[in-house]
Structure formats: structure tokens, C-alpha cells
Amino acid sequence: MSDLLERLRARGWRLTAQRRVIAEVLAGEHVHYTADEVHALAVRRLPEISRASVYNTLGELVALGEVREVTTDGRAKRYDPNVGESHQHLVCSGCGAIRDVRLSGDPMAVLPEGERYGFTVSEVAVTYYGRCPDCAAAG
């Protein structure tokens, strides 16, 4: 059972067959699927699942704070179930692959007080861009 399924059960969220399959698809590390990818993977497990069910469920999971929407470089939204641990993202500028990375220091400490312009900073999002090994090898 995935961490997401455990969290949803703990919340008492009604787990229909469709919702369960979507949560199972989102299980694992470095998961950042688009809604269409979630649908394609869910159909393999539950052929009758509709695209609308996937989109609606993803929207509900985001609203619950159980899944985070990740958007990079104007590409399609991706859905990250790793919301319990603070992390940043490493994105391939070739194929768009995304990996979770954990900074060794506090990202808030990197922004000097003089560069905050009076803002009360509540969240930091750092995204690293580069080329994955496959894209780098391809040229």
C-alpha cells in the first residue's frame, strides 16, 4: 500500500475503485505524472476509468493537499504525491523528466534579509534544470 493510500485512509477519504487506482498509480518515488499519464496507467488497472474521473480526483487530491501540482517551463501540469517531505525538483530540459532532490541546507537561509524587500516569505520553490543522462548522451 502506498504512502498516499495510507494518508487518504487516515483522513477517512472515501476510496472508490477509481480513487484507489489513481492513488496506486501515484505511488513511488520521483512520481510526477501528467493527468493523461495517470489516466493511461489507470486504464491498465481499471479499463472503465474515465479521463474525467482522473482529472476530478487529481483536483480533489490537490485541494486536500495530498498531491502537489508541479509546472515547469510551461509544460503540462504534473502531480507529485511527495508532499510530506520538503524537497525541490531537478528537471531535464530535453525530455522533461523530473526528479525530487533534497537540499542539504535551509533554502530560506539563502535569501538575504536585504533581498526580501519587506516580504514575509512563506514558501520557497527551487527548480534545477539540466539534461538527464539519456538526453545528454543523445547529443
Structural class, by secondary structure, is: alpha+beta
How many helices?
A: 6
Note the overall shape: globular
- Beta-strand residue percentage: 15-25%
Mean pLDDT: 89
Neighbour order of strands in the largest sheet:
1-3-2
Unreliable parts: none
Helix content: 25-40%
Extended strand count:
6
Order of helices and strands: HHEHHEEEEHEH
Explain what the structure shows.
- Helix content is 38%, strand content 15%.
- The protein contains six helices and six strands, in the order H-H-E-H-H-E-E-E-E-H-E-H.
- The chain has helices at 3-11, 17-25, 35-45, 51-64, 107-110, 133-138; strands spanning 33-34, 68-70, 78-80, 88-92, 98-101, 127-130.
- The protein has a three-stranded antiparallel β-sheet.
- Helix 2 (17-25) crosses helix 3 (35-45) and helix 3 crosses helix 4.
- The protein is globular, with a radius of gyration of 17 Å.
Descriptive labels:
3-stranded antiparallel beta sheet, 3-stranded mixed beta sheet, alpha+beta, 139 residues, globular
